[in-house]
Structures are given as structure tokens and as C-alpha cells.
Design goal:
Length: 230
């Protein structure tokens, strides 16, 4: 095969994945401990290099599946990080993606080789290269998306209580939300299905369980309305 571009420099292309999860302790990130240089022994986002025969999107899906074993999860390209000095090993451009999964979906026993661990957003360890910048940018994008699309529901179990939903949005925005206003906004959109079941883990009286109704959401959007949480 003729090398038409032989006079140009070779540059590596990497894909780094920011994986958000949520449980009763709040919003968190899945990180791995690097077992190779540069940065061996440091905490890092899950990443890998683009293969010759795949697109960036397919590379991100492959990397996520390698770590989590999951398919068909929320995945969005975030930004391309290209500072010439970002990686001390080589000239590497990184396409960052972020995904959101339910914490219980991740099987910790699947990938012990990666030494993967969940970290609360408030207590992240030092990270290699520019991975902290990637996380900051991903949080800003997540907040924008959560205000205009129901992607936050990806982080909840199929059945959840309204307090659990409010806890999630408070974790995303890192601030307390007024309970009455929160309930009013979420019920006005009519995108939740109320179940007869109750979660009694917090009290004898319990709290009703709900689930997200995608058909109602699609009807809302098709009618010209918007998911406007803020």
C-alpha cells in the first residue's frame, strides 16, 4: 500500500471513558489503577488506543465493554484533548467520552485485572495526565444534559422513589433542591408511572415507587414540549 502521507508525523489516537455511577452514597466515578508506564500505579480513566479498523465510537464501546461487560449503555463523545504535552509517553490525542450506568450493573468480580474502583466525586484521587480536566468538562456536560433530557434516569434502578430521584439530581448539581418545587416540576411533566409498591427501607410508612415512562416522554417531546428540569 502506498504511503501518501509518509512525510507527516505519526500521532497516536486514544479514547478515554468517564464512567458515572450512582448509589445511596451519591454520584461517583469508576477509575482504574494503571499497570504500565507512564504513570504506572496511578489512578486513571479507563482508556485505550484506537485500532486501525474501528471508529472512535466503536472504540469507546469496546473499551467500556472490556471494563464493565455492558452493552447498549448511554455513551456520548465529550471533547478531544490535544495538548502536545498531555502525555509524557508519546504525542497522543485523546477523544474523551462519558457514559452513565447504574452502579449495581457493574460486576466488580469481572475485571479484577484492571483494579477498578468506584470513587465519590468529592473524594477523587490524583489522576494521570489531563484526566481531571476531562472529568470537570464531563460534569458540566452532564448537568446540561440532565436539565434538558431525562438522562439522569439511566443512573437509577428501574423502580425508584421520589426522594431517590431528588438525591440523584442534587448529586449531579452538587446543591440542595427545594423538595416542593422538585416534586411539582417532575409531576407536571407526567413522565413517571406510579406503582402500587412501596420502599419501606427508610420507614414503616414507606415511599411509593415509580418508574420512568419513555412512551410518555416521547409523547411530551413530540407534542412540542421540552424536558425542562431547571
Amino acid at each position: 500500500m502506498t504511503d501518501f502521507y509518509s512525510i507527516h508525523s505519526k500521532i497516536y489516537v486514544a479514547v478515554d471513558c468517564i464512567i458515572f455511577g450512582f448509589d445511596e452514597r451519591g454520584l461517583k466515578l469508576l477509575l482504574i489503577k494503571r499497570d504500565f508506564e507512564p504513570g504506572k500505579g496511578d489512578w486513571s480513566l479507563m482508556g485505550g488506543f484506537l485500532r486501525y479498523d474501528e471508529s472512535l465510537d466503536n472504540a469507546a464501546k469496546r473499551i467500556l465493554h472490556d471494563l464493565t461487560g455492558l452493552h447498549n449503555i448511554y455513551l456520548e463523545q465529550l471533547y478531544t484533548f490535544s495538548d502536545p504535552e498531555r502525555d509524557p509517553g508519546e504525542r497522543v490525542i485523546s477523544a474523551a467520552y462519558f457514559s452513565i450506568i447504574r452502579s449495581e450493573q457493574y460486576n466488580e468480580t469481572r475485571n479484577t485485572g484492571y483494579q477498578a474502583k468506584w470513587f465519590p466525586l468529592k473524594f477523587l484521587p490524583d489522576l494521570v495526565f489531563d484526566h481531571k480536566q476531562m472529568i470537570v468538562r464531563a460534569m458540566k456536560r452532564l448537568r446540561r444534559r440532565a436539565a434538558t433530557e431525562p438522562i439522569g434516569f439511566e443512573l437509577l434502578p428501574e423502580k425508584f422513589t421520589i426522594p431517590q430521584l431528588q438525591d440523584l439530581y442534587e448529586a449531579i448539581y452538587q446543591q440542595k433542591l427545594d423538595k416542593r418545587n422538585f416534586r411539582k416540576k417532575i409531576f407536571q411533566m407526567n413522565i413517571l408511572e406510579k406503582l402500587i409498591e412501596k420502599d419501606k427501607s427508610g420507614s414503616k410508612k414507606g415511599a411509593f415507587l415509580y418508574r420512568f415512562d419513555k412512551e410518555r416522554y416521547d409523547t411530551l417531546i413530540n407534542s412540542g414540549d421540552h424536558f425542562n428540569f431547571l
